[in-house]
Structures are given as structure tokens and as C-alpha cells.
Write a structure and sequence with these properties.
Blueprint (H helix, E strand, L loop, with lengths): L6 H7 L3 H14 L5 E2 L9 H16 L1 H9 L8 H15 L8 E4 L2 H12 L1 E2 L5 E9 L15 E5 L1 E4 L4 E5 L11 E7 L11 H14 L3 E4 L22 E6 L11 E4 L2 H14 L6 H12 L1 H28 L5 E4 L6 E6 L5 H12 L1 E2 L1 E2 L17 E5 L4 H20 L2
């Protein structure tokens, strides 16, 4: 029976890139689908990390106070107090950031954090105007596309493209086209960038901070893959926070996507606003992730594990996947974005017949799931043919899945270019 939905409801009745990604991923992970999953954002199962978390779960189960703290009690709306205090101490100790627990809020995953943050700043203003979020480095994360409550609240800028040797290329920030006007309420970048693995340099981050400070707006940094943890970064990049920066972290890429724990580091008024929203939406956020990870925060071991175990694990997988793509796609017009972080490869197939959405469907029929590039260019005011020539591949799954998936992909790409 058809019902009459609100404007809000109609917005969420429509398909989205985020749902397409998670639907493919859930079916593959649950065994409902035999797709080779190169499209999702699920982290790899790193043996050392899994062993550590199993041991910690056993400790929690054997300790009544810890068990109650994890499962039997509501946390504060801003998140588990002891975890927030401990993380503030770690970041202050390591980086000199002047933080307390009042500067940290936990959310039900990073996606929830961006829903709240984007709608905190973007939308109808009290003066009757409309504020937007600026994404200055398109392509950007697919999950930003549908989190605003109103239409046209994202605006984006094309990245520059530099062709490199060895079948690589790299996107760059076009500061000449940044144009932060009175309608921009905040700037948001992911670092490393999801989907491309691009890592903005410290100098670029400093210029962005200066531009935001001059415009009196916040800079939101999505650090789900970056330093200090999980530190899936293959180049020099220092974590940066100061007043006016909203720094977002996650426990997911440590190997804990199921606990849905996002972390926001920001000025106290923003943290209070997030806590107010959580109280209305959820009453509180879960404590499983914070209690599980607390000892790693207290000791600082989370930094060492990120540096010596998690980062190198994904660097090795990316290196092998790049070599395989070069071999399998040899002779075709392809380039790979220089892998500088995260666990994705961004493939540019220049002149791809019929576009990446068509290739995505063709690949699913062949048994491999990727993500078409079109989903990652939200907010651009004009069509960019480049957006339909790209694919995002995950290299986080086991080696056999990645290798088989890339071989199938290469076969279908060759068929697409040959007109078969």
C-alpha cells in the first residue's frame, strides 16, 4: 500500500551509493553471495589484531565490573567517560594537543558522526540563507553524498590531475579554485582520501586551515584511515588538530567495524552539540568498542600496533595488487592513483566505453563487486567525464579473493574496450 511520505522520508526512499556498497558487502560477508568482494570498506582480518581482541573479550567476560561497563550500563551521551579521558591524555601526550574529555565525543560509527556534523552546519540558516559543505578534493567519500537533510547542500571542486610514471597518477588540491564564500559553512576532506588513497601533505593541510580560519568556518578532517590510528599511511603525514578543526577517527579499521565506534575531536561547543544530538537520537552510544580498546589507549600500544602491524599489512597488500593490475591490464589505457594510504586502489580507465556504472553491472554478473566512480563526485556543479572512467577497488580481503577479482576485472575491462 503506497503511503504519503515527508520530504525527509522521500529522500531516504531513494537508492544511494552507500546502500549499494553495504548491500553487496553484507551479502558477500554472510555467504549469501559468491561475489568476490573488491568493493566494500570492510577491513582485513589481521591475525595479530584478531588474537588481541579475542584475548581482551575473554578478560572482559571474566571481570564482572568490565562486563557491566561494556554491556549493562548506559554511557554518557558523549560516550564512555573513561575512554574519552584516556584518549584525550594520549593525544595530548603524543602531539601536545590541549585536550580534555570535553573535547571528545563518540558516535555510532563515523557515518553517524558525519550525518550530525554536516547537518549541524549545512542547511537553512536563521537569516533565510542556505549554507553548504565544501568538498575541495573531488572525488571524495561516497558516504557524504546522502547525509544532509536537504538537497544541494554539498558543493565540490574538481581535483587537478598529474600523470606520473609507471602507470600512476595523482590528484591535487586546486587552491586557485577553492572559493570559500559566505555560503560555505564548513570544509571537509578525508585523509587518506577514500576512495583514492591520496594523502594531502602537511603543507596543503596548513593552507586549508588558514583558508578556513580566514573564513571563520571549521575544517572537518575525516581521519578514518589515518594517523595516529589505524595509521594506514604510506607517506609522510602528521596528524593535525587545533581550535577550529574537527578531527574524526574510528575504531573500525583496527579490525572492529562491527562495534560501530566513531570519534570526534573538536572544540567543546561542538562536542556538546553532538552529545545533545546523541541523547535525542540514541540516548547514548555503545560501550563495546571503548571498553575493548581501553588498555591499548592507556598504554599507547595502539600507536605501535598501527605503525608496525596495521599499516605495513595494508602497504604490502596494495603493493602486490598494483603489480597484478599492471600485469593484467597491460596494453590498455589505464592509470592507478598513487597509493599513499587506506586500503583502496583507484583505477582510471581513460575513454572507458559506456562508463563505469555499466562496467560495474558487467563485473557483478561476472562475479566480482567493485564500486563505480560516479558515486564519488557528489557536489560538482557540472558533469566531468572523468567521473565515469574510474573504479574503486578494495585490497583488504584475503589474497586469493583480491587476485581472482583483479583477473576477472581485467578480463571484463578488455572485453569492454574491445566492444565485446
Amino acid at each position: 500500500m503506497p503511503f504519503q511520505y515527508s520530504i525527509f522520508g522521500e529522500r531516504f526512499m531513494l537508492p544511494s551509493g552507500a546502500f549499494e556498497l553495504m548491500d553487496d558487502l553484507a551479502r558477500a560477508m554472510s555467504g549469501q553471495s559468491e561475489l568476490l568482494m573488491l568493493g566494500g570498506g570492510n577491513p582485513g582480518r589481521i591475525p595479530e589484531m584478531q588474537q588481541l581482541f579475542r584475548k581482551r573479550l575473554a578478560e572482559v567476560a571474566a571481570d564482572r565490573a568490565l562486563f557491566d561497563r561494556m554491556l549493562a550500563n548506559y554511557a554518557h551521551p558523549a560516550g564512555e567517560n573513561r575512554f574519552r579521558s584516556s584518549l584525550a591524555s594520549l593525544l595530548s601526550r603524543e602531539y601536545g594537543w590541549p585536550l580534555g574529555a570535553e573535547n571528545i565525543a563518540l558516535t555510532a560509527g563515523s557515518q553517524s558522526a558525519f550525518f550530525m556534523l554536516f547537518n549541524l552546519f549545512a542547511g537553512e540558516r536563521p537569516d533565510g540563507g542556505k549554507s553548504r559543505i565544501l568538498l575541495p578534493l573531488a572525488p571524495e567519500y561516497v558516504g557524504y553524498s546522502n547525509v544532509t537533510l536537504g538537497e544541494d547542500l554539498l558543493t565540490a571542486r574538481r581535483s587537478t590531475i598529474t600523470r606520473l610514471d609507471d602507470d600512476l597518477f595523482k590528484y591535487g588540491l586546486d587552491f586557485g579554485n577553492l572559493a570559500i564564500d559566505e555560503n560555505i559553512a564548513a570544509v571537509c576532506v578525508s585523509r587518506p582520501t577514500n576512495p583514492t588513497g591520496n594523502v594531502l601533505t602537511d603543507a596543503e593541510m596548513l593552507r586549508l586551515e588558514d583558508a578556513c580560519r580566514e573564513a571563520n568556518i571549521p575544517l572537518i578532517v575525516d581521519n578514518a584511515y589515518g594517523a595516529p590510528f589505524p595509521n594506514i599511511v604510506f607517506t609522510e603525514a602528521s596528524p593535525r588538530w587545533n581550535a577550529g578543526t574537527i578531527f574524526c577517527l574510528s575504531l573500525s579499521k583496527l579490525g572492529l567495524p562491527g562495534v560501530r565506534t566513531g570519534i570526534v575531536v573538536a572544540d567543546e561547543p561542538i562536542i556538546q552539540a553532538l552529545a545533545n544530538m546523541v541523547a535525542v537520537l540514541n540516548l547514548a552510544v555503545g560501550s563495546v568498542g571503548p571498553v575493548l580498546v581501553q588498555p591499548l589507549i592507556d598504554s599507547g600500544e595502539i600507536l605501535e600496533l598501527s605503525r608496525t602491524t596495521i599499516g605495513p599489512y595494508y602497504r604490502d597488500k596494495a603493493t602486490r595488487a598494483v603489480a597484478l593490475l599492471r600485469r593484467e591490464l597491460k596494453g590498455l589505457p589505464f592509470r592507478i592513483h598513487k597509493p599513499e594510504g587506506a586500503f583502496f586502489l583507484w583505477l582510471w580507465l581513460e575513454g572507458l566505453p559506456n562508463g563505469s556504472a555499466s562496467l560495474y553491472r558487467r563485473l557483478k554478473q561476472a562475479g566480482v563487486a567493485v564500486l563505480p566512480g560516479d558515486h564519488f563526485f557528489a557536489g560538482l556543479s557540472e558533469h566531468w567525464a572523468h567521473s565515469s572512467e574510474c573504479l574503486r577497488l578494495s585490497v583488504a580481503q584475503d589474497d586469493e579473493t583480491v587476485e581472482s577479482g583483479i583477473r576477472l576485472l581485467a578480463r571484463e575491462v578488455r572485453a569492454a574496450f574491445s566492444g565485446r
